[in-house]
Structures are given as C-alpha cells and as structure tokens.
C-alpha cells in the first residue's frame, strides 16, 4: 500500500519562504519518480517540480524556476520543496505524487497514480 503524506504548508507574506515535505511509504528505489503539484482555487492542478531519481534530472515549471528547489532524500524516503520569494499567485493546495519508475512527462498529472492529500500554501 502506497501512502504519501505532505506537511509544511502555511501562510506567509509575499517575498517569504516555506518548506514542504512529502513522506513516501510503500514506494522506494532508484527508479522512483516524484513530483510536486499545486491547485489554486478555481484552477486546474498543475505541475510545479519533479525529479527522476534514476535519470538524476529535476524539472521545474517556468513560473517557479529560480525560486523553488526540489530535494529528494532517498535515505528517508522523503522529498522536500523549498519555496523562496513566494508570490500571491503561488497560493494553492500543494500535492506530492510518485511513481515507481521514470515517466515520460514528469510534470504531467496523468503520469502519476499515487498522490498525497495536499497541504495548503497561502501567500498574501
């Protein structure tokens, strides 16, 4: 049984920082692909950042490049998202997702079967 649990969301003023964590249970290995997604009120869920462990590549959405950093910790089966210089448009529910093998489009929702329940980020 695969379970993903996000934590670290909260409220922050524009320009501030937050760090999100995603603990992954029941899924591990060098082939794991993990990603962060977000959904703003009234909007579709979108890819934010994703990492393919085996390929050692990290992908970022254009809107967060240079501000967000995804860091996997395979020893803890945990993935982190450091978010700096936050903007009001970063507000939304943030979800982590994982797959046991590399996927063709790491920032695409349809590539992932395993999802967490989300953590809220509010930037004012």
Structural class designation? mainly beta
Q: What helical percentage do the residues reach?
A: under 10%
Quick one: biggest sheet? 7 strands, mixed
Please tally the β strands and state the result. Answer: 11
Q: Judging from the principal axes of the Cα atoms, what is the shape?
A: globular
Low-confidence stretches: none
Q: What is the subunit arrangement here?
A: single chain
Q: How much of the polypeptide forms β-strand, as a percent range?
A: over 45%
Mean pLDDT: 94
The succession of helices and strands, N to C, reads EEEEEEEEEEE
Number of helices: 0
First-residue to last-residue Cα separation: 37 Å
Radius of gyration, CA atoms, in whole angstroms = 13 Å
Question: Overview of this structure, please?
Answer:
Strands 2, 4, 5, 6, 9, 10 and 11 form a seven-stranded mixed β-sheet that branches. The chain has strands at about 5, 10, 20-25, 35-40, 45-50, 55-60, 70-75, 80-85, 90-100, 115, 120-124. By secondary structure, it is mainly beta. It starts with a strand and ends with a strand.
SSE layout:
Layout: E1 3-7, E2 10-12, E3 18-25, E4 33-39, E5 46-52, E6 57-60, E7 68-73, E8 78-83, E9 92-99, E10 114-115, E11 119-123
Parallel strand pairs: 2-11
Antiparallel strand pairs: 1-3, 3-8, 4-5, 4-9, 5-6, 7-8, 9-10, 9-11
């Amino acid at each position: 049984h695969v379970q993903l649990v996000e934590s670290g969301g909260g409220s922050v003023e524009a320009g501030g920082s937050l760090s999100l964590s995603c603990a992954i249970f029941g899924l591990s290995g060098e082939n794991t692909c993990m990603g962060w997604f977000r959904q703003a009120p009234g909007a579709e869920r979108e890819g934010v950042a994703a990492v393919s462990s085996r390929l050692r590549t990290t992908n970022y959405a254009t809107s967060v490049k240079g501000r967000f950093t995804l860091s996997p910790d395979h020893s803890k089966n945990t993935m982190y998202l450091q978010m700096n210089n936050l903007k009001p448009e970063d507000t939304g529910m943030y979800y982590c997702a994982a797959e046991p093998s590399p996927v063709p489009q790491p920032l695409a929702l349809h590539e992932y079967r395993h999802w967490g329940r989300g953590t809220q980020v509010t930037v004012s």
